[in-house]
């Protein structure tokens, strides 16, 4: 520590006057210069100025040293606090970065999952339901809905709902499931009520208790369902509105920006799926239009040729009737052959468009579903047996065999009063056979027409080029057997 006298400052002669003059001007005659030391290293000094010459006692000097040590300690503590502060900030930043990485990874996984579904799911309606399901899961929502915009009516129509862990298409048969939850009564055409997100073209959070535009009846209904918050997300193609997401929460929510970003990304994917759905439907309708025109022309040409030939042969027959009546029979046979040929060609052309669905190729699945549906509430024991190695049949064969089965089951349930019903489907190299057997009251074949149902089954079998047989006796039940030739798919 130094005790300095202004009169004795150790500066060069040319500097002394200037420095001394500054001190004198500021009223300083003497000062105490105490070094501030940290870890045996001087980091500065504590300088105390005095206006007059004086002598310092030992205790005053010790006091100055103590103050310098306190200053040094304060500097050390301040530096350590700053270091700890910066360390804590860095730690929090690293933690936030790790959380962000996890959020981004989760968002990317979600987007990839939905993209995979869009790329692989043949039914786009199901892929839209999957997007709803994933969106609800990411936001911890219990339910959500997809609405399609109808530009002609300027309204939104509910299309698909995610509810209680299930994807529910908004179809008439599902209306009871959605009634009181997503639709009023069973009205599937009711318009979307909250449209601020549609008008503003951005996601909007609607707080059920506070949002002023919620109609009072809707607010009360939402409150009864336990819904606290709604999120509306517009589905946009450029600036064009094509639909809307509505997501429900059973607690009050203020969504984070990253949650809204992910939700909007999922909405964009739904928009893509909707456009693909529309394009596919347009392509399907265009193809149907072209095919119907082609078949109409083909049927017209077939019938025109047949009727022209019949007309010619009829003219010949009329002439032969005057010349040689015995030759009429051969002409009539030719007319019959021409008529049968034309009828077969017309049927073939019609069958090309009816039925159109390949689903009837898998006859076993369709048969089982149909049997379950027809007999689920009936007091009858039903069995289905498959014999041989199953293979796909043409849609026409599958469709007509299914209709034959349905007709036979319906007849049995209505008229037979049977306890058991057996359906046996047999696959062989050249045929598919179907037997429907019940142990009901039966009927006498002699003089019994069997009604329109049996006639219809017989005609269906004829159209397939098959064989139809029926065996029944009073009190012994009935067996209907159909055998149809098939062409195996190569």
Kindly list the characteristics that best describe this protein:
single chain; 490 residues; alpha+beta; Beta-Lactamase; Single alpha-helices involved in coiled-coils or other helix-helix interfaces; 4 domains; six-stranded antiparallel β-sheet; five-stranded mixed β-sheet; 51% helix; 22% strand
Describe the SSE topology:
Blueprint: E1 2-5, H1 13-25, E2 30-38, E3 41-50, H2 58-120, H3 124-138, E4 143-150, E5 155-163, E6 166-169, H4 175-178, H5 196-200, E7 204-207, H6 216-224, E8 229-237, E9 240-249, H7 257-323, H8 328-351, H9 363-375, E10 381-387, H10 395-416, E11 420-427, E12 431-438, H11 451-463, E13 467-473, E14 477-485
Parallel strand pairs: 10-11
Antiparallel strand pairs: 1-2, 2-3, 4-5, 4-9, 5-6, 7-8, 8-9, 11-12, 12-14, 13-14
Helix pairs in contact: 2-3, 2-7, 3-7, 7-8, 9-10, 10-11
Order of helices and strands: EHEEHHEEEHHEHEEHHHEHEEHEE
Q: Could you say what the CATH architecture of the largest domain is?
A: 2-Layer Sandwich
Task: Briefly note the structural class of the backbone.
Answer: alpha+beta
Residue share in helix: 40-55%
**Mean pLDDT, as a whole number?**
78
Main-sheet strand order equals 6-5-4-9-8-7
The CATH superfamily of the largest domain bears the name GAF domain
Shape: elongated
The CATH topology of the largest domain is Beta-Lactamase
User: How many angstroms does the end-to-end distance come to?
Assistant: 109 Å
Annotation field: number of helices: 11
Percent in strands? 15-25%
Please state the CA-atom Rg, rounded to the nearest Å: 46 Å
CATH class of the largest domain: Alpha Beta
| Sequence stretches where pLDDT stays below 50 over 5 or more residues | none
Largest sheet composition: 6 strands, antiparallel
How many structural domains in the coordinates? Answer: 4
How many β strands by DSSP? 14
